[in-house]
Amino acid sequence: MTADPGATLSFQADPKKPIGGNILAHASTTRLYLRKGRGENRIAKIYDSPDLPESEATFAITNGGIADAKD
To answer: What is the model's pLDDT at position 14?
Structure first.
C-alpha cells in the first residue's frame, strides 16, 4: 500500500516534492529547498513563502560553520 498513488507515475513535470505532506505545508510559513552545488557549496532556494520572492542563495559549510560560497 502507498499513501501517494501517483508517486510512481513517470509523466509528472517535476517528481521532486517536499517531505511532510500537508502537515508540514500548513504548519510552516516559509519552505526551503536545499541542494548540493559544486564542490563544498550548497544552494538554498525559497520554495514557498508569503512574504519573500522565490530566489536562491549559495553558501558553504566549513569547519567554522556556515560561510559565504567561494566562486
So the answer is: 65
| Cβ contacts of 1 within 8 Å, gap of 6 or more | none
Cβ atoms of 19 and 25 within 8 Å: the answer is no
If you compute the radius of gyration of the chain from its CA atoms, what whole number of angstroms results? 16
Q: Which residues of 5-34 are buried (b: 16+ CB within 10 A; e: fewer)?
A: eeeeeeeeeeeeeeeeeeeeeeeeeeeeee
Domain boundaries along the sequence of the chain: 21-68
Going through the chain in order, the beta strands assigned E by DSSP cover 31-36, 41-48, 56-62, 65-68
Longest dimension (CA), the chain: 46
Specify the pLDDT at position 53.
94
Q: Taking the complete model, does pTM exceed 0.70, yes or no? A: no
